[in-house]
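Quiz preparation item.
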């Protein structure tokens, strides 16, 4: 008769469970202690950064000093040898830990790679260089015709002016800031690369890409796939724009490539101002509103689909409107959302004016704010309070910006008259000149330039040449005149300086945006994706909060598949614009195409 071994198996299982519990308790003790100090230092750094972005006084180094001190304290802690070694040690037996613990420990190591104590001198120098670059960027005095102008004023010229000489002057003014940032960008490239290389990353670009669970080649393959899928539609838009703008500016010979100053955006990333859809011009109503109404109305939209009120601190602490002309200081004019303490303190930095662009932007920025508020919950530890991936955050904001621009929504809001007759193709064209046109810039020019900058160590004396080489290849645009290496036109884009090597986030976000919108329109609202009204529909809010709630505690592709039934795909975006594609081919019949069919 065989000897029974059940008691032995039970004993082994009990011993194994007890060992797992001990290791999990040890890991949790470390994570909890780390989180407590992390939050304190993160909040202090956020406050210093907030001050440096909202009140820039020429010659005053107070903010820069505080940013330096708090940034170094945060870097010293997150990159400490003790934290790196402890996290690595605990991950040696990660099979014994919970999935949430493993994610937090990996996050600790990812954060450490940006501030490793093993190269503390490099980290300190990088922080100082980043602060100096930010002050130069946002403290720059833009000049037009010998007078100081805001970027809003430059943008207004590029949107409305028909005199090409005046347009070129405004465009060139917008690029002057890059000249003083070129050397600093080179320094930042060296310091950022050295920082992450200390923990085994090839370069800063590959470090940023790794946050998606991808390597550089995999990310480039993904975004090139998106670029390739949208190329035929972009090629039609590019051809259409060349001919239509030549007519507008009374230029007889249609150029093969679009001169950058012809387009209504400083980087040619959004051409939507080219088209005014009859009946859809909300500016006539919006300009009668106070700027504050733009933000409160956006908050009302979110409340209507089931989101809570914004906290009182949001209204008290945010910087929502342009700095007064006599303020004696400047502020960062780029819209952004801030989760100051990874808890209840959420803020927005904008320069809202009562127009349709800021109306969309306000709805977009509040998307970030409500995402922060939703994943700040008992089930998501502070270290994982961020988007499922970085693109999700932008997708949520852009989704609500799109929803707030659709005809049924605008009618419901009283921003256009009910029953207004509009040209649906022109409405689609305007949207395509925003969303589709953005892809070659974000997934092409910007991403390829930063890959070359960090992974390819692009020489400083080739920055401008490479920038315009890529702009021509992907966007089909050229500068109005020779732009030699005295310039650094890439550095005129905020993200190149202070949000580096992440611009593919925005391209991916647009793909996610249309995937989510397609699902909402067809499965929840049962409406045409091109004519929806989210307002007041709690089921839409429930769907979005389900995606937002886990933050970064779940795999990003799994979140997408569980909620939409599909992994990342550009098909909903292509389907959305299919009627426009047919129309454009008719309009472009007989016209010369200058962009290759494939990239």
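Solution:
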């Amino acid at each position: 008769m065989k000897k029974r071994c059940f008691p032995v198996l039970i004993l082994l299982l009990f011993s194994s469970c007890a060992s797992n519990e001990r290791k999990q308790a040890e890991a949790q003790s470390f994570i909890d202690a780390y989180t407590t100090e992390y939050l304190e230092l993160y909040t202090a750094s956020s406050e210093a950064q907030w001050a440096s972005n909202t009140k820039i006084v020429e010659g005053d180094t107070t903010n820069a000093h505080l940013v330096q001190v708090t940034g170094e304290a945060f870097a010293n802690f997150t990159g400490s040898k003790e934290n790196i070694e402890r996290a690595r040690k605990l991950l040696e037996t990660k099979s014994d830990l919970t999935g949430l613990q493993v994610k937090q420990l990996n996050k600790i190591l990812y954060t450490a790679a940006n501030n490793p104590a093993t190269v503390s001198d490099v980290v300190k120098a990088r922080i100082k260089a980043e602060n100096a670059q930010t002050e130069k960027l946002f403290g720059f005095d833009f000049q037009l015709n010998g007078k100081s102008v805001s970027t809003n004023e430059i943008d207004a010229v590029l949107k409305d002016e028909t005199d090409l000489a005046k347009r070129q002057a405004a465009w060139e003014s917008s690029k002057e800031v890059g000249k003083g940032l070129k050397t600093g960008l080179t320094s930042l490239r060296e310091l950022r690369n050295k920082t992450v290389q200390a923990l085994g990353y090839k370069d800063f670009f590959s470090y940023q890409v790794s946050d998606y669970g991808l390597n550089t080649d995999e990310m480039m393959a993904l975004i090139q796939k998106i670029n390739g899928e949208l190329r035929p539609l972009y090629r039609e838009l590019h051809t259409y724009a060349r001919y239509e703008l030549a007519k507008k500016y009374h230029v007889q010979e249609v150029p093969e490539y679009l001169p950058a100053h012809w387009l209504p955006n400083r980087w040619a990333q959004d051409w939507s101002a080219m088209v005014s859809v009859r009946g859809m011009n909300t500016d006539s109503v919006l300009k009668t509103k106070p700027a504050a109404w733009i933000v409160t109305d956006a908050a009302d939209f979110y409340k209507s689909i089931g989101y809570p009120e914004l906290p009182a601190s949001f209204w008290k602490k945010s910087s929502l409107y342009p700095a007064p002309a006599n303020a004696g200081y400047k502020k960062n004019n780029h819209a952004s959302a801030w989760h100051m303490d990874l808890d209840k303190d959420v803020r927005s930095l904008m320069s809202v004016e009562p127009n349709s662009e800021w109306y969309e932007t306000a709805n977009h920025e509040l998307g970030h704010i409500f995402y922060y508020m939703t994943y700040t919950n008992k089930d998501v530890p502070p270290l994982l309070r961020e988007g499922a991936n970085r693109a999700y955050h932008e997708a949520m904001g852009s989704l609500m910006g799109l929803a707030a621009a659709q005809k049924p929504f605008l009618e419901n809001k009283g921003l256009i008259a009910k029953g207004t007759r509009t040209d649906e193709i022109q409405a689609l064209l305007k949207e395509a000149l925003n969303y589709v046109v953005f892809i070659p810039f974000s997934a092409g020019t910007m991403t390829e330039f930063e890959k070359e900058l960090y992974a390819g160590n692009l020489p400083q004396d080739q920055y401008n040449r490479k920038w315009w080489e890529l702009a021509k290849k992907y966007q089909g645009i050229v500068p109005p005149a020779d732009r030699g290496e005295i310039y650094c036109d890439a550095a005129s884009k905020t993200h190149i300086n202070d949000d580096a090597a992440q611009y593919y986030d925005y391209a991916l976000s647009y793909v996610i945006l249309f995937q989510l919108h397609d699902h909402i329109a067809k499965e929840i609202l049962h409406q045409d994706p091109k004519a929806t009204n989210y307002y007041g529909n709690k089921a839409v809010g429930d769907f979005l909060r389900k995606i937002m709630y886990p933050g970064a505690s779940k795999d990003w592709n799994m979140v997408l598949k569980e909620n939409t039934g599909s992994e990342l795909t550009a098909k909903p975006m292509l389907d959305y614009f299919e009627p426009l594609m047919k129309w454009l081919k008719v309009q472009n019949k007989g016209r010369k195409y200058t962009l290759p069919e494939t990239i």
